[in-house]
Amino acid sequence: MKKDKAMGFDRHGADGPSQASGAAWPQPAASALPSSSPSPSPSLPTPLIDPQAIERLRELDPSGQLGVLRRVLQAYEASLKRHLADIEQAATTGDADRLSRAAHTLKSSSAAIGAMDFSQRCAELEQQLRSQRQVPPVAELQSLVADGRQVLAAVEAMLAT
Amino acid sequence: MSPVATSYAEEHARDHPRVLLADDDQVTLMIAGAALRERGFVVREVDSGSAALAALQDGMPDVVVLDAMMPELDGFDTCRSLRALPGGEHVPVLMLTGLNDEASITRAYEAGATDFFVKTQQWTQQWSLLDGRLRYLLRAARTRQELERSKSKLARAQDLARMGSFDWRRHGGLLLSPEALRVFGLGPGEGLSIRGLLRLVPAEDRRVLMRMLRSTLQHGSVLTSDMRITPHWYSGDHVVHVEAEPEFNEQGQMVGYTGVVQDVTDRRVAEDKIRHLANFDALTGLPNRRQLLWRAERALEMARRLGHQCALLLIDLDRFKIINDTLGHQSGDELLMEVSRRLRGCVRHSDQVLEAVYEGHGMGVRSHRSLEAVGRLGGDEFVALLPEVADERDAERVAQRMLEVMREPIVVAAQECFVTASVGVAMYPRDGGSVADLMRNSDVAMYSVKATGRNASALYGPQLAGRGREKLELETALHKAIERDELVLHYQPKIDVRNARMIGVEALMRWQRGGRLVPPGDFIPLAEETGLIVPLSEWALAEAARQAKAWQQSFGFSESIAVNLPSRLFERSDLVDHIHQVVTAHGVPHRVIMLEITEDNLMKDLQNVIPALHRLNEIGVEIAIDDFGTGYSSLSYLTTLPISELKIDRSFVRDLGVSPQSSAVVTAIIALARSLGLRVIAEGVETLRQMEVLHRLGVVVMQGFLFSRPAAAGDLEQWLHQAVLARSAPWITQAGELEASADAVRG
Fold it and tell me: Is there a contact between B27 and A101 if contact means CB atoms under 8 Å apart?
């Protein structure tokens, strides 16, 4: 669950007296908040790659004999590099199709390895391109590429171990 | 392939389905492939639409998963091309589409995808969803495949069964499946209307069929019927079985019929054949017992209702067994066929198979005439059923005609055979109210014909009723006794008591019927009454000659065997020839046969018998007079007759020492015999006392239980060895003493 959403829920729950009874919302979530409020640390960075997703990939090859995880990460690394280059190039040329394909592919594959935030940004870009048929501003794309490079670094780090 | 192997292969395919996975993104492809493999699928990964189509050339997988968005050939186009491939039309295809992309979903279906699967952000982490979807698709595909298979099986089964389905709408007409069209000899493209169908039905059946169809429609009832069709493109009749059920709309109105038609011609032919076999005699083609009894029952019902008379004629061939035995069964069968042909010509014979059909449909008042027939009960026994006769003379005329048609010789095995028959007639209602009664009484009448010389007919009557069935049976059995070798001769020795020597034997007939020995008293009178005594006596003469020869070879037998003959045999001109024949055949002298005739018999037919006696005497056959002393012998004649022996009746012997008259008669007979130069024999000697008295009176040859009971040939021989030659019997000692005292008296 995302942090901002949790906070909004928190706020909403504190303001609404009608919610004091907690009838409309699940009781466990509401009651968990007071006890968890001292411990949650908003400053804690969200991991770029969800370790649970990595764990699931590992489960596909429990013995590790097939080297699935490693091969997936290698494939992702190659794909990410290629598509980041595509996005950078498209930002300058304004090639919407190329951008759209890169966003579509990275949306899926990033989600598959657990880079959820980056996947989400790619999905938003794809949606934006489909609905508006307009290449977003270069700054926005550069920000996306920057996020992608962080994910790439994390993947390379995992591969290095 | 064996069923086990098949099921194993199927099981393996079910647990490990082959999936072709196409996605341009290496990462997704790799993960999805690994995930599906981990769940038991056999996965082939390709990274483009064209690679997927190329992979399909190696064979169809069980399921195809296509990513919708791929560069160049996307998932939609790939799916479209796949469907066009041979064998690709039914393989399940799962399209992977993006979230909330309804346009893609519609496009997927349009391209021929079986189902779609939305790739959510978490889809690569929720493999059970994809797994479940794929398994569902596979199951659906398998069900579809099985359905296809059973559909084609059904079509094939219908084809084999010459069956097809049809559908008829009240407002839409008749629709026949290709298989149904074939039943009517039509091609798949051709059509057949109700009108056209009715035209195939022979005119004579059409009206009945239409009436039936109309009534079925009116009541909305189930239709089950066989109809005969004669399309010009077939040779001969075909029978089509129709079975259909009505269909109703919500208002309960009949809207149509749906059902099947089947060509049952072969079955019908087989049924007809079975019916024919069950009702007709295979050899002669005449109705058999079952069919005839069935007809007789119906005829009696009609006669009862309409108040007329029926007749049942039982026809039995005379001496058929002899023909069968001498010419062989093949010829016997040929003869029966010819006899059948002639007999059926004597009545208005109807060959129709009559069964339930007869009762169901309203037949005319005179319909019972079609019951008339000659049937074969089995063997050489036939029955004629005359369902309506004015009186017994009608039936007798038919019987006479039957006897007449038999007069013409029948040629079998290149030989002319003369066959006669005995016919017994019983009338309904006079001679019986049931088929069983009529059968029995016609049987009684028939046997009365047999008993009085055959080759005639007789009406049943109360005078015959007195003749017990038992006696009739005995008579029939006696008829067959000779053929069946049931007769035997037993022998009783004649003893000369002076030296305890056997000087001859008397042959006595016995009948081994079933397991028991019938004494002569129970069948000889009957044989005489029916004339059977003639063949019986002839047999006895031949058997005696044969036995004489056998004994001659065994222990030097050279005496005579006395055979009892009735006077009617002496009247036969061929008696001498017959005896000559049998002794010659066995190589024994004529004197080996001796004939005994009772005094009664002799005196009754004296004039007719005398010539034969002379001729027999001339060839060396001696004659003895049996039971002498009981009849009213004209003693003067005795002096002129060529007689050799007098046998004193057993009644005098029995009373010896009891009544003084007995010894007086015996003394007189002895005196008479001496004066005529005849031998005297005493019969029925049972005690030593009787032997002693007889001996004292001057009788030296005796016969009776004291010496030996009548015994089978083998037993007699044994007796001869043990009692006579060993001189061990008590009467021998006694006889010896008697002789010694007689010598002393004479000396």
Answer: no
